[in-house]
Amino acid sequence: MQELSQKHIDIVKESAELITANDLEITNKMYEILFYKYPHLEMLFENAPNNHFVKLAEALSLYAVNIDKIEKLTPALELIAIKHVKVNIRPGHYSMVGMALIEAIEEVLDEIAPIGFIDAWREVYKYVSDILIEMENKLYKELK
Predict the structure, then answer these.
(1) How does DSSP classify residue 47?
(2) Is 94 tagged catalytic?
């Protein structure tokens, strides 16, 4: 797994307030984009709690604030991985969600995002999704 660049860690940390202030709007837009482009993914969310938009928004803010201390995020990521395995999330789903997330961030933050912000979030998403995929692969193997 590729480590995060210090440059992108710094950009994400410096702009954490920007994400936190807009996290619900970003996640709502992300799901809108995701389900429009990939309607078959809606079935993965059929049994999701009503507040799953809020949970994702909180996670985005948490990642932004703690991206340089990934070990603080490990317990939360482990819980997410367990939930993902229960609904059969697979590695291929991450690229679709990532595309929708980045598009939503671009759309919501548009002109107010600092230079390098989108590239930094692409790297962060890839980094965190790689961690989740690794955790989920271990869980799938344990289930066999």
Answers:
(1) T
(2) yes
Chain mean pLDDT for the chain:
90
H/E element, 133:
helix 117-143
**Residue 94 corresponds to which tokens in the numbers above?**
């991450």
63, 64, 65, 66 alpha-carbon torsion, rounded to 10°: 40
Indicate if 111 belongs to the active site: no
Indicate the Cα dihedral angle 115, 92, 140, 84, nearest 10°. Answer: 60
Of 136, 120, 137, 25, the closest CA to residue 68 belongs to 120
The token pair that represents 114 in the structure block:
């600092």
Q: How do residues 89-115 score in pLDDT, each as one tens digit? A: 999 999 999 999 999 999 999 888 888
Distances in Å between the Cα of 31 and the Cα atoms of 8, 61, 101 are: 25, 17, 8
Indicate which residue of 31, 63, 94, 125 is catalytic.
94
